[in-house]
UniProtKB/TrEMBL annotation, chain A:
Catalyzed reaction equations: a quinone + NADH + 5 H(+)(in) = a quinol + NAD(+) + 4 H(+)(out)
One GO BP: cellular respiration
Ranges where the NADH-ubiquinone oxidoreductase 51kDa subunit iron-sulphur binding domain occurs: 328-373
Protein's name in the database: NADH-quinone oxidoreductase subunit F
Enzyme class: translocase
UniProt xrefs under Gene3D superfamilies: 3.10.20.600, 6.10.250.1450, NADH-ubiquinone oxidoreductase 51kDa subunit, NADH-ubiquinone oxidoreductase 51kDa subunit, iron-sulphur binding domain
UniProt organism field: Leptospira fletcheri
Keywords assigned by UniProt, alphabetized: 4Fe-4S, Flavoprotein, FMN, Iron, Iron-sulfur, Metal-binding, NAD, Oxidoreductase, Quinone, Translocase
A single GO molecular function term of this UniProt record: NADH dehydrogenase activity
The protein's Enzyme Commission number: 7.1.1.-
Alphabetized InterPro entries for the sequence: ComplexI_51kDa_subunit, NADH-UbQ_OxRdtase_51kDa_CS, NADH-UbQ_OxRdtase_suF, Nuo51_FMN-bd, Nuo51_FMN-bd_sf, Nuop51_4Fe4S-bd, Nuop51_4Fe4S-bd_sf, SLBB_dom
Function summary: NDH-1 shuttles electrons from NADH, via FMN and iron-sulfur (Fe-S) centers, to quinones in the respiratory chain.
From TrEMBL, chain B:
Enzyme Commission identifier(s): 1.6.5.11
Keyword check for Metal-binding: yes
GO annotation terms (biological process): inorganic cation transmembrane transport
Keywords carried by this UniProt record: 2Fe-2S, Iron, Iron-sulfur, Metal-binding, NAD, Oxidoreductase, Translocase
GO cellular component terms listed in the entry, alphabetical order: catalytic complex; membrane protein complex; organelle envelope; organelle membrane
Single GO MF annotation: active transmembrane transporter activity
Protein name per Swiss-Prot or TrEMBL: NADH-quinone oxidoreductase subunit NuoE
The family this protein is said to belong to: Belongs to the complex I 24 kDa subunit family.
Annotated binding of [2Fe-2S] cluster, by residue: 85, 90, 126, 130
Cofactor binding note: Binds 1 [2Fe-2S] cluster.
Record SUPFAM superfamilies: Thioredoxin-like
Pfam family, one: 2Fe-2S_thioredx
Species: Leptospira fletcheri
Cofactor(s) the protein requires to work: [2Fe-2S] cluster
Length: 429, 159
């Protein structure tokens, strides 16, 4: 199986980040086409393409754009969410460093579609190389008249500002990102109102992921029909997957949606590191339920197949875990991440994530009891399903509970009172 | 007030004040300017920033923002700030051993700064380089696919 490179076709060229090179490979053609169209025609094309947001939630992009109210006097804003931070996820960083113009082009198209004259590129503060690459590209685009006043004589004005976050994972959540851009703590906001109605500076706002914007120029250039025929019916197109963990060739791969997970691991990533047997895979970033090696055999990389396996594609991060890995330790480290990143607004998350982390630490140290394990499961029920403003505590549950359920024997083996604990056979493992 | 931005920061600050529809947005980039000058953000600098942005922005608001975000150092760090990613993907590729090695080479524990003020070592959460693990961030740069040998070479190259 080969990759199907649409977004990443030129990523390995040393000049991929330069405007001149980008133009030589049909860069900004999609934008030029879009500028000839009416805004609603652009929205229709993106809707027809079936493109779903590549940030994690998978919401249809065209539909998101269509929620922006048309005839209100307030300014409208468009934001690129480049605050990539989900453990396992590192695909956007590549696009930012190597293909910044593709993102800018997508943002201009999106801005035109929703009538925004100002946009922000919100990038995680650690990505210094990406910040430089993007700022350089923004400056080049201004100089060439792809940004600023009267873009390419179309009468459309669009200004783009780069804004660096400051190390808070929660700012990847769109309302927390908006608060951060407004110079506040990154606290998620209650929805509704949704950003499309009241977002940045209380104005209508669209927030899309880096990969989503990177896809848009190709759809405008080659058409909705071309795009919707790639992939599966409900998951059209290609997608970038960032593979980490125990494979021979970790990295970012662009594949057609619907590709079997094992093909990605065995063919593209060269199989398991040191040829250890596969133990488990987390298919969509740390917050999604883990798959056992057995489940991996039937899982395909698309929204439908993942749903059938009771997990998700999430942020496109495939974490491959080999036999011999201590899952109690990895689960503890995920929980520690969520405890560290909880913004502290909602009690179930603020207390829950820390409590779960502490209990897992106890178990990891061999000091935990079967009651502690039960307490984690009981706590997790109070941390999910809308008890909090945003889904960060749900994400913590997603990283912890399915692993305990599917690999319970490993956790029990570390319990202090393991003699009393139900035997692996009795618990059905 | 005694603290003042240097001329370069002053110029950048004025530009920032024109960039956003609401001047509150200047708090985050303003804190970066402070940190660039001093290496960390302190109360004096934050009070200065609040006053420069002007009402209704107060020291409390700037302080509240600075303490929320991990990239603003609230106290001085060494000349080289070594941040080791210890989240699961990095752990699975041996970040704990790299951390041990760095600490033993420098003779300090995680969270400490060497006596000469040269190195500070910290373990941090995901730096978004999971496929190139184990890795560290030193000041602005990422160093990936580390081995003990690469770490030795890297530490030697920093003076």
């Amino acid at each position: 199986m080969a990759e199907m490179k649409i977004l990443t076709k030129y990523i390995d060229d040393p000049r991929s980040n330069e405007l001149e090179f980008y133009e030589s490979v049909h860069g900004y053609d999609g934008m030029k086409k879009a500028l000839q169209l009416k805004p609603e025609e652009i929205v229709d094309i993106v809707k027809k393409s079936g493109l779903r947001g590549r940030g994690g939630a998978g919401f249809p992009t065209g539909m998101k754009w269509s929620f922006i109210p048309k005839d209100i006097p307030k300014p409208k804003y468009i934001i690129c969410n480049a605050d990539e931070g989900e453990p396992g996820t590192f695909k956007d960083r590549k696009l930012i460093e190597k293909l910044p113009h593709q993102i800018i082009e997508g943002m201009v198209i999106g801005a035109r579609a929703i009538g925004a004259n100002k946009g922000f590129f919100y990038i995680r503060g650690e990505f210094n190389k990406g910040i430089d690459s993007m700022q350089k590209a923004i400056d080049e685009a201004y100089a060439k008249g792809y940004l600023g006043k009267d873009i390419q004589g179309s009468g459309f004005d669009f200004d783009l500002v780069l804004y660096a976050g400051a190390g808070a994972y929660i700012c990847g959540e769109e309302t927390a990102l908006i608060n951060s851009l407004e110079g506040r703590r990154g606290h998620p906001r209650l929805k509704p109102p949704f950003p499309a109605v009241s977002g940045l500076y209380r104005c209508p706002t669209v927030v899309n992921n880096v990969e989503t914007f990177s896809t848009v120029p190709h759809i405008l250039d080659k058409g909705a029909d071309w795009y919707s025929k790639i992939g599966t019916e409900k998951s059209p197109g290609t997608r970038l997957f960032s593979v980490s963990g125990h494979v021979k060739r970790p990295g970012v791969y662009e594949i057609v949606l619907g590709t079997p997970l094992m093909e990605l691991i065995n063919d593209l990533c060269g199989g398991m590191l040191d040829d250890v047997p596969l133990k488990a895979v987390i298919p969509g970033g740390s917050s999604v339920p883990i798959l056992t090696a057995e489940e991996c055999k039937t899982a395909n990389m698309d929204f439908e197949s993942m749903a059938a396996h009771k997990t998700m594609l999430g942020s496109g991060a495939v974490i491959v875990i080999g036999e011999g890995t201590d899952l109690v330790e990895t689960t503890y480290r995920f929980a520690r991440f969520y405890a560290h990143e909880s913004c502290g607004q909602c009690t179930p998350c603020r207390e829950g994530t820390h409590w779960v982390r502490d209990l897992l630490h106890k178990i990891r140290e061999g000091e935990g009891t079967s009651e502690d394990l039960e307490l984690i499961l009981s706590l997790s029920r109070n941390m999910e399903g809308g008890t909090t403003i945003c889904p960060l505590s749900d994400a913590c549950v997603g990283a912890v509970r399915p692993t305990i359920q599917k690999f319970r024997h490993e956790f029990e083996a570390k319990l202090k009172d393991r003699a009393k604990a139900p035997s692996p056979v009795a618990s059905g493992v | 007030m005694s603290y003042r931005f240097n001329p370069d920061s002053e110029k950048r600050f004025s530009k920032l004040m024109e960039m956003f529809p609401d001047k509150r947005s200047v708090i985050l980039p303003g804190l970066y300017l402070l940190q660039k000058e001093k290496g960390y953000v302190d109360r004096e600098g934050m009070a200065y920033l609040a006053e420069k942005i002007g009402p209704p922005i107060s020291l409390a608001q700037v302080y509240g923002v600075a303490t929320f975000y991990t990239l603003y150092n609230k106290k001085p760090v060494g000349k080289y700030h070594i941040q080791i990613c210890g989240t699961s993907s990095c752990y699975m590729r041996g970040s704990d051993k790299i951390e041990e090695h760095i600490c033993s080479e420098l003779g300090i524990k995680t969270g400490q700064t060497t006596k000469d003020g040269k190195f500070t070592v910290e373990e941090v959460e995901c730096l978004g380089a999971c496929g190139y693990a184990p890795m560290v961030q030193i000041n602005d740069a990422y160093y990936e696919n580390l081995t003990n040998e690469k770490v030795d070479e890297l530490l030697r190259s920093l003076d």
